[in-house]
Amino acid sequence: MIKETHKGGNVVARFNRLKQALSQLVHPKREPPIHEISNPALELAENFTGHYAFLDEQTNKSHQLIIGPDLTIKIDGRALPGQVIGVTTSALTFLDHYGFQLIITCEAGVPVSVYDEAEDATYQIITPE
Fold this sequence. Notes:
It contains 2 helices and 11 strands; from the N terminus they run ββααβββββββββ. By secondary structure, the protein is of the alpha+beta class. The protein folds into 2 domains: 5-30; 40-128. Strands 6-5-4-3-11-10-9-8-7 form a 9-stranded antiparallel sheet. The protein has a two-stranded antiparallel ribbon with strand order 1-2. The longest helix has 16 residues, at 11-26. The radius of gyration is 28 Å and the shape is rod-shaped. It starts with a strand and ends with a strand. The model is unreliable at 1-6 (pLDDT under 50). This is DUF4828 domain-containing protein. InterPro entries: DUF4828 (IPR032254). Pfam families: DUF4828.
């Protein structure tokens, strides 16, 4: 091994540092573009995203249900405060600010029912709008 020195430094060591720096410039580590990063929860959200309606048979009133691509939930145009606590291919579980769950069930990629824990009632989704 050559142990020549140049201004008090090892020439081989300086060469290796220069080689490493040039390599990083020529072949920098590439972070994937944001559109290439997948988020499984948001991919699953596609099963639930849309405009739906369900009927409360006790009051005979139809309600509009909107689920956004970010899994925000609106009922009759009002945002439901809370957060998603689970999402699978078959169910979206939302915990409201009172601590009650709203579970939207999906079959074959289509929402089919809404369970409201606060009312202990399940509503069938009747029409996608």
